[in-house]
Amino acid sequence: MIRLCARAIHALDGLFPRVRVAGRDSNAAYAEWEYEEGKNLISRYGAQFGALEGTRVLDVGCGLGGKTVAYTEAGAEAFGVDISTDNVAAAVRFAASRGRRARFVVGDAASLPFADASFGLVVANDSMEHFADPALAAADLSRILAPGGRLFLFFTPWRSPLGSHLYDYIRMPWCHLLLPERVIEEVLRLALRKRGEPDPAGRAALLMDEFRTELNRITVRRYRRIIGGRSELETVFERLRPPKFESLRFLTRMPVVGEFFTGTVVSLLRKSDEAADSARHSS
Questions:
Q1: Contact, 112 vs 140, CB < 8 A?
Q2: pTM over 0.70
Q3: How many CA atoms lie within 13 Å of 148's alpha carbon, on the beta-carbon side?
Q4: Tell me, what's the pLDDT at 281?
Q5: What is the CATH number of domain 27-160+216-282?
Q6: Beta-carbon contacts of residue 216 (< 8 Å; ≥ 6 apart)
């Protein structure tokens, strides 16, 4: 029954539009994509980022370092942190290839290896949904942020059409909400076999393990509850962006179902100046 259902889903999957994500060919290509994405973020959200010249910026979940290097080129004193030692090593190599002095460290977002109030801007792009404990991560991101500093968060919430993060293999929106995991794994196996994967079953099992362990299933509602519990953080703005067309943004504002049409949460937070006074009084 599972295989029959999976074959039907796999046959229909081609009817859905392909989600195009650049840089999948190699680590070098992905780092270049990150770099271009970093430049795009600076261009699009420059007013919210503020002046980067001389600002200490932390790129959380820096991946292969592309965005960190882009912040450095904009004049920031940029640091990248990632939980993966392989990613950090690749990021160091990418920065060196660009002749940039961005610094990279291995670290967990819930226990960052930085002093209190040490950054003027913290950016977590496509990271919030991967933090093992997003509430602890939010607390530590706030800790390292200087009073008056800004925290910029971009993430794909769980109920998004692309919330599975399996869109390289399954085009069907909301597949993670509509299909049992055993069916998803079989659809993955079929997709991988079609691509000529030597061990489609093994690769599908690995992808499902990542699906289960590397996504915290954070919803927009849970995110707002976490941030709402941090009195020192003020939400300057929040945007719920649809996954495809901006003209469909009105769907993200609909009660109850709005989360299902949200492709990306974009949120800018500011740490209150009073946080410094509170810290002094408590010490």
A1: yes
A2: yes
A3: 5
A4: 38
A5: 3.40.50.150
A6: 129, 130, 131, 132, 133, 134
